[in-house]
Design a protein that fits this description.
The strands form three sheets. This protein has a six-stranded parallel beta sheet. Strands 3-2-4 form a three-stranded parallel beta sheet, sandwiched between helices. Strands 9-10 form a two-stranded antiparallel sheet. The protein is an alpha/beta fold. Helix 1 runs parallel beside helix 10, helix 2 crosses helix 10 and helix 6 packs across helix 7. The N and C termini lie far apart (46 Å). The chain contains ten helices and eleven strands. Bound molecules: guanine (GUN). The site of guanine has 8 residues, from strand 4 and helix 6.
């Protein structure tokens, strides 16, 4: 029997703690914690994510400043807005929702976010600090995964951890966090040979490749910890993850469901990072 890791419950517990910290900040400093959220264009998934982030801010008492630029906004307009937010004293964190429209140079935009306001942990300085295992701001999804492991007493030290997926947002920072936690880390991806065998050697398997139910029971070691970062639709249009949950759940010692696993933790860690940047300001 495996344990289902309850991301929703942990997120609720952490949000209650964050709410208390937000109130304490306000009482101490006499001002609100501010998070600016920038959305460019009409991507429907991004609109849902941004809406949920703003709602979560309201829940814990963080003031959100929401900016929605049209899909044909120029590089100059996007950068100009980020520059303004960078200079604003009442804005403690800046989040530019990705992906940006194709004509916008994403790197140039992210470079304008001051590292101390980079609540996503995406800028080069924060990623570099993570790589060097120094104090930093950690990308929300992998940070949330580490909190889940901690909550369930799963220590990566000395374990074989396999990260399936190598994105800048999840795969790479996740691999670095696991390495910093003394795991032996393998990163694999769509071009990896013997993918099944590599995954089957994992004590901790983290999956973020964006393919519905891609990881099947034969790719999972008996007793492995399986963390599913995927958010996909199955053949019936039902929300599912990158892991075939039904097939894998009895083989794993711990497993995250979709929905109710990693998802609720991502926004929680955004709130956590926002309080962190505000406290350091
Ligand atoms: N797009 C998908 N995930 C994220 C995220 O965590 N932060 C931002 N800014 N954009 C995203």
């Amino acid at each position: 029997m495996s344990t289902i890791i309850d991301g929703k419950a942990l997120a609720a517990k952490m949000r209650a703690e964050i709410k208390t910290r937000v109130a304490a900040f306000q009482a101490e400093r006499g001002k609100e914690i501010g998070l600016a959220v920038v959305l460019v264009g009409e991507d429907s998934a991004s609109q849902v994510y941004v809406r949920n982030k703003i709602k979560a801010c309201e829940e814990v008492g963080v003031k959100s400043f929401s900016y929605h630029l049209p899909a044909d906004a120029t590089q100059q307009q996007v950068c100009g807005l980020v520059d303004e937010l960078a200079a604003a004293d009442n804005v403690h964190g800046i989040l530019v929702q990705l992906p940006l429209p194709k004509h916008i140079d994403e790197r140039a935009v992210l470079r304008r976010i001051p590292p101390k306001k980079d609540v996503d942990g995406f800028c080069a300085e924060n990623v570099g600090n993570l790589a060097m295992n120094r104090e930093t701001i950690v990308a929300c999804t992998p940070f949330g995964v580490m909190k889940m492991l901690e909550e369930y007493g799963i220590n990566p030290k000395g374990k074989n951890a396999v990260m399936l997926g190598r994105s800048n947002i999840v795969g790479k920072p996740m691999a670095m966090l696991l390495l910093n936690a003394d795991a032996t880390v393998t990163v694999c991806h769509s071009k990896t040979e013997n993918l099944k065998e590599v995954c089957a050697g994992a004590d901790i398997l983290v999956v973020a490749i964006g393919r519905a139910k891609f990881v099947t029971a034969d790719m999972v070691k008996e007793g492995a910890v399986v963390i599913d970062v995927g958010m996909d639709r199955d053949e019936n249009g039902k929300l599912c993850g990158d892991v075939d949950f039904e097939g894998v759940k009895d083989k794993a010692s711990y497993i995250t469901p979709v929905p109710g696993g990693v998802g609720p933790m991502t926004i929680t860690m955004l709130l956590y990072n926002t309080v962190l940047t505000a406290s350091r300001s």
